[in-house]
Amino acid sequence: MRVILAVTGAVLVLGAAAVAGVRWTTAGEPVPVTAPAGASTALPEGEYEAVVDNRTAEVATDLRSERGAPQVATYAMPAATTWDQVRSDVAGQLDGWEQVGDCADTGDRQVQCSWSEPTRWWPRLVRIVFLRPAEPGDTDSYVWPESTFLVIGSAPSGSR
Questions:
Q1: pTM value?
Q2: CB-based contact 41:125 (threshold 8 Å)
């Protein structure tokens, strides 16, 4: 009887260790997120570059953890692209993930949203930042092309 209990206990411990090992390995990889339709990695020239580069650097810094650097990409979007289109497209790829905070369109030039993997151990994180050009004549106006920009960051798990 003791042998059966010892074998059963060993199997349970090994099973739990295997599950934890698989989760640890999966958590160390950022989840791939595909850009919405119409997105282009070829960014047009313009005076917006410092603003877009700063937001990209912020996302990369915010999502960095002891598990490693995040995957961060910047895309030029068609001028007619809306925040709701971008947010719903990315959220559709993260089925079952939990939205972090309020992701409502405030009408600001910059809007962002984050999602966290619904797991107890080492959840991964995805963040998007949507950048629009300033209104013509606005005091914060830059000479932006007729497009909006999207920054997508996907991070491995870990403490941030």
A1: 0.80
A2: no
Tokens matching residue 100? 């972090």
| pLDDT tens digits along 15-55 | 655 555 554 455 568 899 999 999 999 988 777 888 899 99
AA identity, residue 119: T
Of 29, 30, 39, 26, which Cα lies nearest the Cα of 89?
39
Q: What are the backbone dihedrals phi and psi of residue 130, each rounded to the nearest 5 degrees, phi first?
A: -110, 125
Under DSSP, the state recorded for 130 is: E
Tokens 């990369």 appear where? Answer: 60
- Bridge partners for 152 per DSSP: 73, 128
CA 107 – CA 62 distance, rounded (Å): 23
Q: Are 92 and 128 in contact (CB under 8 A)?
A: no
Q: Is the pLDDT of residue 5 over 70?
A: no
Q: Which amino acid does the sequence have at 12? A: L
Residue 123 half-sphere exposure toward CB, CA atoms < 13 A: 15
Work out the widest C-alpha separation in the chain, in whole angstroms.
84
Between CA 16 and CA 27 the distance in angstroms is 16
Write the pLDDT tens digit of every residue in 119-133. Answer: 877 789 999 999 988
